Amino acid sequence: MEYQVLEVENGKPVKMWTNGVPVEEDARQQLINTASMPFIYRHLAVMPDVHLGKGSTIGSVIPTRGAIIPAAVGVDIGCGMMAVRTSLKADDLPDRLFDLRNAIEHAVPHGRSVKRGKRDKGSWGTPPGTVDAMWASLLPGFERITAKYPRLRNTNNYLHLGTLGSGNHFIEVCLDEAGRVWFMLHSGSRGVGNAIGTHFIALAQEDMRQHIANLPDRDLAYFEEGSRYFDDYVEAVGWAQDFARRNRMVMMQHVIAAARQVIAKPFSADIEAVNCHHNYVQKETHFGTEVIVTRKGAVSARKGELGIIPGSMGAKSYIVRGLGNEEAFCSCSHGAGRVMCQSALKTFQVSASKSFHLV
Predict the structure, then answer these.
(1) Range 122-145 average pLDDT
(2) CB 265, CB 235: distance < 8 Å
(3) What is the total count of domains within the chain?
(4) Alpha-carbon gap, residue 279 to 353, rounded angstroms
(5) Which domain range does residue 206 map to?
(6) Percentage of the chain with pLDDT > 90?
């Protein structure tokens, strides 16, 4: 698919893989605003599922040098997908799928309830040993971050590890085109990631209060490399992304264990696995230069790398293998999102899922 180029006066061009895809005017203006920032490297890359976001456009890849925009990463830091292919076939699933759904719902805290003096149903009361073991690897980094920013200590962190959340986060049991069973889920860094993102976005805006009027959007407030918060944010956002990845790993362990309680046939669940972010930032090398790449609603698609593009409720999802398109900074779309919101947590879906699709 060829890209279109949106030229930006006094800014970098925007390369858009959106042929035949309508792009709302507000999203187009948001892309222009981002591309006009002085530290953008070469160009922005825009995916086919582009739409208006907070600060920067969802479905965009933002390469920068010497600066980072916290609101472009957002507050659902490390949000992404995980999928595993099992040795099961469609015929191995129980006739009564409600029992499988029920087992998964009991194994993974999900949703949200806010009642004074009571536990949020989307968190653990007493976390199981799998959560304890995973939290032990995250705790040293958390202690370093909260020593500098104590307010982040009083967040949903340990009790949210291995939980799904609400909104468009989901767990699915899928069938691929060969009738093989996959488990798939979508979640991120939960309450602690939200707190980290919100806190550093506010710090960036406060740090730039003398210059913020000159920005095309206050949510484009940034940290320059070498400034007082830059390194702290890089450490905190990296930790939140690690939390998100491990959060999905713990959930998947619990989903598999729950399925084994219901499905009589022994099965393996490690034939193929993908665990990828679609809201994150990291250092990468492109066109021979080390840059900071923010993917806001986009997936890394280096040559041969596996990723996941989920469909809307009832639609196909795709396990994709990257082609390493440098013009797109080796990225692909992250999916159009869910049609349903909280009801997605109540709907057990068996959907067709292509196991390989070249992007």
Answers:
(1) 97
(2) no
(3) 1
(4) 22
(5) 4-358
(6) 81
Taking the C-alpha atoms of residue 259 and residue 265, their distance in angstroms, rounded to an integer, is 10
Burial of 283 (0-12, 13-18, 19+ CB in 10 A): exposed
Name the phi and psi angles at 339, rounded to 5.
-70, -40
Concatenated DSSP letters of 292-351: EEEEESEEE--TT-EEEE--STTS-EEEEE----GGGTSEEE-----SSSGGGGT---EE
pLDDT at 337 over 70: no
Cβ count near 301 (within 10 Å): 25
Three-class SS of residue 218? helix
Q: Does residue 211 sit in helix, strand or coil?
A: coil
| Alpha-carbon gap, residue 280 to 271, rounded angstroms | 27
Contacts 24+ apart (CB under 8 A), 128-132: 128/162, 128/254, 130/162, 130/250, 130/253, 130/254, 131/158, 131/161, 131/162, 131/250
The larger pLDDT score, comparing residue 312 to residue 138, is at 138
How many Cβ atoms sit within 10 Å of the Cβ of residue 270?
A: 10
What is the distance between the terminal CA atoms of the chain, rounded to a whole angstrom?
9
- Burial, 354: exposed, middle or buried (Cβ in 10 Å; 0-12, 13-18, 19+)? middle
Paired tokens of 291: 């840059």
The letter for the amino acid at 322 is G
CATH of the domain at 334: 3.90.1860.10
What local confidence, expressed as pLDDT, does residue 1 receive?
Answer: 63
Q: Over 60: is that where the pLDDT of 358 sits? A: no
Whole-number Cα distances in Å, 186 to 199, 201, 224, 290, 330: 24, 24, 32, 30, 22
Tokens at residue 121, please? Answer: 């149903």
Kindly report which listed range (45-54, 134-143, 183-192, 333-342) carries the lowest average pLDDT score: 333-342
What angle, 0 to 180 degrees and rounded to 10, lies between the N-to-C axes of helices 97-107 and 230-262? 140
| Residue from 257, 262, 314, 252 nearest 95 by CA | 262
Active site residues: 334
Average pLDDT score over the chain: 90
> Do residues 269 and 249 touch, judged by C-beta distance below 8 A?
no
